[in-house]
Amino acid sequence: MVTHKFTEHALSDWMRGKGPDSEIVISSRVRIARNLNMLPFPMLATNQQSKEILETLSHVLESKELANLGQFNEVLLSDLNELEKRVLVEKHLISPNLANESRNGAVLISDNEAASIMINEEDHLRIQCLYPGFQLEEAWEMASQIDDIFEDQVDYAFDETRGYLTSCPTNVGTGIRASVMIHLPALVLTQQMNRLLPAITQVGLAVRGIYGEGSEAVGNLFQISNQITLGQSETEIIENLYSVAKQIIEHEKAAREKLMLESSTRVKDRIQRSFGILSFAEVMDSKEASQRLSDVRLGLDLGIIDGVSSDVLNELIVMSQTGFLQQYYGHKLNTEERDFYRAKLIRDKLSKS
């Protein structure tokens, strides 16, 4: 079954790439929200209407234009169990909203998992492109190409004054959400994040956890995205986020240099302790795992830790999550069992690395 291709492996092909500033920026993402004209938004659509929407948008999968961008696979949410849905959420291939509330929902996923196209989510269509490292413009270019293919074949809901119409008013206009997932351990350790957060929000950006709105920032991983979709062009949105993210990257680099100059012994001790605990612990909850993996990633970037690849650390970010952990071991686990198997999985992966 095609679903197994996307749920059995934690590391997507695109995550193996090494984009610009990949020691700090894990990924760049662009998501486009669209709806079909003259049809109710998903929250108001009847079961029959949502079926028609699914059929209409799935038909684009067969177009040669989309095939020219790569091989896409259609996955129906009705064919997935709850664990498989959770794994796709943890891999950022679908949203929690699509997993939990969608009727006649589906997702079209590219072979390398860099692009996923959600159908009957909060909006009729959500196009998402993920690239490794700091590649916002590249992610936008791919998402825009996919958007153009759909727009050529279906009639979008569009208003000359307001732009593209969406279920949530905060997405009206361009319908674009651009974001970077960024690892900022030095800014956290030097207690500069509390000063930076208000400055980021003042320029129209939002800071969230790695699973977007409502999620907690764990493991020093933050998702920084635009809040404004109306009144700015797509280019302005991408450029504004790029400019601010570039400054944050420079602040993180400076904070890392400061740590090594002023507190190198303590930093090395923290990193080596985390590596030792990850290598030998018998039980570990998800929050501790995220924090200690963050320490080891920082140690790898600073040259304090060697013999561990960034691919393994990227993989463990996903594999240590609740859904994938249970999928990996083939059965549901209670909290105590998850903590035991999480520690075992991390030990095994680090020893093989």
TrEMBL record:
Entry EC no(s): 2.7.14.1
Sites where the protein binds ATP: 27-31, 92, 126, 177-181, 208-213
Any single GO BP term: phosphocreatine biosynthetic process
Keywords, comma-separated and alphabetical: Allosteric enzyme, ATP-binding, Kinase, Nucleotide-binding, Transferase
GO cellular component: a single term: extracellular space
Short sequence motif RDXXRA motif of the pArg binding pocket involved in allosteric regulation: positions: 338-343
Pfam families, sorted: ATP-gua_Ptrans
Stated name of the protein: Protein-arginine kinase
Residue intervals of the Phosphagen kinase C-terminal domain: 24-255
Reaction catalysis annotation: L-arginyl-[protein] + ATP = N(omega)-phospho-L-arginyl-[protein] + ADP + H(+)
Function: Catalyzes the specific phosphorylation of arginine residues in proteins.
Reported regulation of activity: Appears to be allosterically activated by the binding of pArg-containing polypeptides to the pArg-binding pocket localized in the C-terminal domain of McsB.
Coiled-coil region list: none
Organism: Paenibacillus selenitireducens
Top enzyme category: transferase
